[in-house]
Write a structure and sequence with these properties.
- This protein has 14 helices and no strands.
- It is an all-alpha fold.
- It has a single domain, classed as Cytochrome c oxidase-like, subunit I domain (Cytochrome C Oxidase, Chain A, Up-down Bundle).
- It is globular and about 55 Å long.
- The model has no long low-confidence stretch (mean pLDDT 91).
């Protein structure tokens, strides 16, 4: 099993289930919006939708990436076989607990759902500490903060405390954004540089640590203001700086030279979506030019949708021993997810309330179709042995 199957390395099961969870979560949300009898287990429907997209789909994708990348960063053995299966079971248990929320007591649901992230943090943190490469502990810190945000969502639901519930929900999204910035800043320039070198192109790809660090710091401040003082304009002011710094960070990555390489441009677009999200946030806070939810969906449907889909494909191909190129079906999945993000973020600006629900369905169907294509196309890669190391 460990030598050839889905449990041979972390990206295999978690990427596949992340894609399936995205499809199921979006389908459930659209069914609810259509008036079908879909239970929400006592959760406000939009909060349950946000919870499962972050703590179901995004967290699974993050787990798959880190369980694969951290051993490479630290020179340690990856988790595989029965231990990986046990960790995967914790994630599945959380999803099942939420589904059974109508009959299972809320504290038990919360306890089961909140197990996964702390255990993942320990699984990743111990080898990082033993290797002495302590700079990698930053991702462990974000995972623990994500665990706290998940606990806040459950606590806010049970008390009930709408403010705590909001902080947990928005905190979950914002921490996922921070983690994407940390991981994206590390691997997107690397993947781009390696691709150019393989093709014999003399294109220099650089990273400016000072600009990157400043962008992440501005991200923390802007999102922190929005969590603690959501009515304040201060987060909008800092969001302008965050957006500009993120674009400045990305400029030396030579994004324009990736337009004929879909496997790369989807990652660059995912990072650019974060800058767009902060621009939307500033527009909403400073002038009311954008709806308050525009930034939230730029971060989620836009940035997370694009970057996660691109990263799952790139890692699966590379570690699966396949050519690191996007197939025609993969490009279609990219276009569908990008279209879904664009419709969700900017659709409300160009339509009236009468057609708003139609736009939600169009955007959601496009987004979920993109992830369904990934789940189908990459099933054979994720479930079968690697051909050669890439």
């Amino acid at each position: 099993m460990t030598g050839s199957s889905i449990l041979s390395v972390g990206y295999r099961p978690f990427f596949w289930l992340a894609a399936l969870n995205a499809v199921a979560s979006i389908a459930t949300w659209l069914a609810f919006l259509s008036g079908l009898g879909v239970g929400t287990q006592g959760w406000p429907p939009h909060v349950l939708h946000a919870h499962e997209m972050i703590h179901g789909t995004v967290v699974a994708a993050i787990a798959g990436f880190l369980l694969t990348a951290v051993p490479n960063w630290c020179g340690t053995r990856p988790l595989r076989g029965a231990p990986l299966g046990a960790l995967l079971a914790l994630w599945v248990l959380g999803r099942l607990a939420l589904l059974a929320g109508e009959v299972v007591p809320s504290p038990l649901v919360a306890g089961l759902d909140c197990l996964f992230l702390p255990v993942l943090a320990v699984v990743l943190g111990l080898p990082i500490a033993r290797s002495g490469k302590l700079r990698n502990l930053s991702v462990v810190g974000v995972l623990l903060a994500l665990a706290a945000a998940n606990s806040a969502m459950h606590a806010g639901l049970m008390r009930p405390d709408p403010q705590l519930l909001r902080m947990g929900m928005y905190g979950s999204v914002y921490l996922a954004v921070v983690l994407m910035l940390i991981i994206g800043g590390r691997v997107i320039p690397l993947f781009t540089r390696n691709s150019f070198r393989r093709d014999g192109l003399d294109i220099e790809v650089q990273s400016n640590r000072w600009i990157g660090g400043s962008a992440i710091a501005a991200t923390f401040v802007a999102l922190g203001f929005d969590l603690v003082l959501p009515a304040s304009r201060a987060s909008g002011v800092v969001a302008v700086a965050a957006s500009a710094l993120l674009l400045a960070r990305q400029w030396p990555w030579k994004s324009g030279n990736t337009l004929n390489r879909p496997i790369l441009w989807i990652l660059h677009l995912g990072h650019a979506w974060i800058a767009i999200g902060f621009a939307c946030h500033a527009a909403a806070k400073l002038g009311g030019w954008m709806p308050p939810t525009a930034a939230l969906h730029a971060f989620t449907a836009g940035a997370m949708g694009s970057m996660i889909l691109g990263m799952m494909g790139r890692v699966s191909l590379g570690h699966g021993g396949r050519p690191i190129e996007a197939s025609g079906f993969t490009v279609v999945s990219y276009m569908l997810v990008v279209a879904g993000g664009l419709v969700r973020v900017f659709g409300p600006l160009v339509t009236d309330a009468t057609h708003y629900m139609l736009l939600l369905h169009i955007g959601g169907c496009a987004f979920s179709a993109g992830y369904l294509i990934f789940a189908i196309e990459f099933a054979s890669i994720l479930w079968t042995p690697a051909r050669e190391s890439a």
